[in-house]
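Blinded run. Sample ID left blank on purpose so nobody reads anything into the name before looking at the predicted structure. Input follows.
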Amino acid sequence: MGKRFLLHDRDPLFTETFRETLAAAGIETVRLPPKSPNLNAFAERFVRTMKESCLDRLILFGEASLRRAVREFVAHYHEERNHQGLGNVLIFPARDQTTVQERVACRQRLGGLLKYYHRQAA
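Blinded prediction complete.
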């Protein structure tokens, strides 16, 4: 897949044997500095949001259901969910949302767990 680096924290799960195995495959491991919990705060916040808003509320059966839930949440997060840090606007708004209409429709993902209200096109 062309991956050359693995960034990881100093968790004991990343043993020397594990790092040697990756090195043999041509992947360089980069250990993050000790005591740096806010090093990647944006990614940490996204993972926390995904867990609290989606994954903690589902019963998943295998890897396929986990992948589907993550895929649906990422689409909801980027295309349908307002972001307070961006002035309550969408990151990637859909093209059909430019016209203002009277009727409001609800689009659901993951069986209604994630809901998005939008104006219906005429």
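Unblinding after everyone has recorded impressions. Strands lie at 5-8, 28-31, 104-109, 114-119.
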